[in-house]
C-alpha cells in the first residue's frame, strides 16, 4: 500500500509519453463530468452554463499548451490558470470575462480536489466585482424612495440580504417574518436548486417591508394565499419575473444622482462586501450568501470597503 509519505518522498512525477497522451485526452470527459457536478450544485442554471463554457475554453487552450500537470496537481493548475488568464488579458478581453473565468477555474480546482486557484494579484485587482460605496449606496436608496413602494422594498431587500436575482423573484409573503417593534426580521430564500436558507433583516429593511406588507394586505392577489408573491406587477398582481426585477434595479440606478449602471448582482456583491468588512466568519458569510463554501478568489477580489450601516431614511 502506498502512503502519503511515500508519495512525498518520491518527488515530482516524471510523465512518460504514454502519460502525456492519456492526459491530453482528458479534456472531453473532464468537461462532461464537471458539467454533471455543476448540475448538482446550488448555482443558477445560467451560471452553470457560463462556467462550463469558460472551462471548455480553458481545456481547449490546455490541449495546445505545455501544462501536463494542470489537472493533477495544485501547482500545475495554478501555473496553467495564471498562463491562461494572462493570455486572456493579452487579448484585451472584458473584465467580466476575466472574472467569470477565474470563478469557473476556481470551481474546477475545488471539484478536482486541488483547492482554490491562486490568481495573480494584478488580475484580482483588475476584476474586482462591482460594489457600491457609501455615497452610491445612499444615492440609490434616495432614488428608490422616490419610486413605488414595491421598488423601494425590492432594493432594500437586495442590499440587506444579498439574494440572487432568482431568489428575489421567488420570494413569497410567507417567506418574510417581521418583528417591527424589535426592529428584527428574517427572510427565507430559495436557491435555484430549491434548497432554503434563512437570512436576517436589519431594522431599516424591516421597516420598509412592514409598510409594504400593510399595503399588500389590502391589495388583491392573483395567486393562492400560500404562494402569494412578495413582489408583484403594478398593472397585474402577478409575480415579477427575473427580467422585470433586473429592469427595475437598472432603472433605479439610472435615476439616482449621479446615475449609475448597476444590476441585481451589484447589490448582492455590496451585501457580501459589507458582511466581510464587518469581520464575519468566512463560512458564515458563505452560508448567508447561499454558497457551498467560501470562494477565496472572489473574497480576495471583493476587497471590501469600510463597513456600511444600512440607513433607509432619506
Give an overview in words.
The protein is mainly α and 314 residues long. The chain folds into two domains: 16-126, DNA polymerase, domain 1, CATH 1.10.150; 134-302, Intergrase catalytic core (hpI Integrase, Chain A, Orthogonal Bundle), CATH 1.10.443.10. Helices cover 56% and strands 5% of the residues. The chain has helices at residues 4-10, 17-24, 27-39, 45-64, 74-90, 95-111, 121-126, 134-145, 149-161, 165-170, 203-216, 242-255, 264-277, 282-288, 296-302, and strands at 176-179, 184-190, 196-201. It has a three-stranded antiparallel beta sheet. Helix 4 (45-64) packs across helix 6, helix 5 packs antiparallel against helix 6 (95-111) and helix 9 (149-161) crosses helix 13 (264-277). Mean pLDDT is 81; it is low at 1-17, 19-24 and 304-314.
Low-confidence stretches: 1-17, 19-24, 304-314
Number of strands: 3
In whole angstroms, how far apart are the ends?
69 Å
Strand content: 5-15%
The CATH topology of the largest domain is given as hpI Integrase, Chain A
Strand order of the largest sheet: 1-2-3
CATH superfamily of the largest domain: Intergrase catalytic core
Task: Write down the secondary-structure element order.
Answer: HHHHHHHHHHEEEHHHHH
Oligomer state equals single chain
Percent helix, as a range, is 55-70%
Tally of separate helices: 15
> At CATH's second level, what is the architecture of the largest domain?
Orthogonal Bundle
Which structural traits does this protein have?
314 residues, mainly alpha, DNA polymerase, domain 1, hpI Integrase, Chain A, 2 domains, three-stranded antiparallel β-sheet, 56% helix, 5% strand, elongated, disordered C terminus
Amino acid at each position: 500500500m502506498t502512503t502519503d509519505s511515500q508519495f512525498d518522498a518520491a518527488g515530482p512525477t516524471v510523465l512518460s509519453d504514454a502519460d502525456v497522451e492519456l492526459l491530453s485526452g482528458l479534456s472531453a470527459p473532464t468537461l462532461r463530468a464537471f458539467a454533471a457536478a455543476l448540475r448538482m450544485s446550488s448555482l443558477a442554471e445560467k451560471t452553470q452554463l457560463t462556467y462550463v463554457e469558460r472551462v471548455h475554453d480553458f481545456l481547449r487552450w490546455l490541449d495546445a499548451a505545455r501544462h501536463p500537470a494542470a489537472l493533477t496537481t495544485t501547482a500545475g493548475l495554478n501555473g496553467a490558470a495564471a498562463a491562461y488568464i494572462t493570455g486572456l488579458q493579452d487579448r484585451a478581453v472584458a473584465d467580466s470575462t476575466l472574472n467569470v473565468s477565474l470563478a469557473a477555474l476556481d470551481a474546477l480546482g475545488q471539484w478536482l480536489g486541488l483547492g482554490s486557484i491562486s490568481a495573480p494579484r494584478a488580475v484580482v485587482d483588475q476584476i474586482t466585482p462591482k460594489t457600491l460605496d457609501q455615497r452610491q449606496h445612499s444615492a440609490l436608496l434616495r432614488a428608490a424612495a422616490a419610486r413605488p413602494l414595491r421598488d423601494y422594498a425590492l432594493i432594500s431587500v437586495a442590499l440587506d440580504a444579498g439574494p440572487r436575482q432568482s431568489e428575489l423573484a421567488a420570494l413569497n409573503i410567507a417567506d418574510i417574518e417581521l418583528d417591527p417593534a424589535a426592529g428584527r426580521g428574517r427572510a427565507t430564500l430559495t436557491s435555484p436548486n430549491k434548497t432554503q436558507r434563512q437570512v436576517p433583516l436589519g431594522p431599516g429593511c424591516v421597516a420598509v417591508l412592514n409598510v409594504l406588507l400593510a399595503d399588500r394586505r389590502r391589495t388583491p392577489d392573483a395567486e393562492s394565499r400560500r404562494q402569494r408573491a412578495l413582489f408583484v406587477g403594478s398593472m397585474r398582481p402577478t409575480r415579477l419575473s427575473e427580467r422585470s426585477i433586473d429592469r427595475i434595479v437598472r432603472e433605479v440606478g439610472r435615476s439616482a444622482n449621479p446615475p449609475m449602471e448597476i444590476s441585481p448582482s451589484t447589490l448582492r456583491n455590496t451585501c457580501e462586501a459589507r458582511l466581510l468588512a464587518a469581520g464575519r466568519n468566512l463560512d458564515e458569510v458563505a452560508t448567508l450568501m447561499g454558497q457551498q463554501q467560501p470562494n477565496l478568489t472572489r473574497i480576495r477580489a471583493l476587497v471590501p470597503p469600510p463597513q456600511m450601516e444600512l440607513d433607509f431614511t432619506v
